[in-house]
Amino acid sequence: MDCVEQTDTNAEAPSVIDRYFTRWYRADMKGKPCEDHCILQHSNRICVVTLAETHPILQDGRTIKSINYQISNGCSRLNNKVSGKSKRGGQFLTDFAPLCRITCSDETEYTIYSCIRGRLLEVNENILETPDLLLEKPSTEGYIAVILPKFEESKSITENLLTQEEFEKRVSERPRSQRS
């Protein structure tokens, strides 16, 4: 009788995010406790800005009232126009450039920031029509924006960000009242 190697059919394959992206975090954005952002960095330099799983919007069964990409009277992230192979025309963002403002049903407002320097490639207009995507699938269909760092800066953009291990350690050190 031949030996047949048994494989665990219940073992889940890693998600697309886990396979192709590196997770980076910005904790307590602009000094606001628990307002954590997550940046998913692909090997091709593209970065996807999402909410970290510890962000207050994703806690306590909150619901989203509105999402607004209008940053100021003269600046809307929805007006971002990118063209060509080198993605010309996208708005240039600094680390602390606001991407959008999210208002929850309890009237709490949160500003989501880019966290990295680069060119804005796109914002997720789907969350305007279906805000629950942000709550249910923050790392995939509920992402906030896609940013392309400058080639020469692509290695250094993560200097001010935390690795997943560093982020988990920071979260575990928070006072219990701040933890989810």
TrEMBL record:
Keywords: Cell projection, Nucleus
Entry GO CC: dendrite; filopodium tip; growth cone; lamellipodium; nuclear speck
Pfam families tied to this protein: GCV_H
Gene Ontology molecular functions: actin filament binding; actin monomer binding
InterPro entries associated with the record: Abitram, GCV_H/Fam206, Single_hybrid_motif
UniProt-listed GO biological process terms: dendrite morphogenesis; regulation of actin filament polymerization; regulation of filopodium assembly
Protein location: Cell projection, Dendrite; Cell projection, Growth cone; Cell projection, Lamellipodium; Nucleus speckle
Homology family: Belongs to the ABITRAM family.
Descriptive protein name: Protein Abitram
Gene source species: Kryptolebias marmoratus (Mangrove killifish)
Taxonomic classification: Eukaryota, Metazoa, Chordata, Craniata, Vertebrata
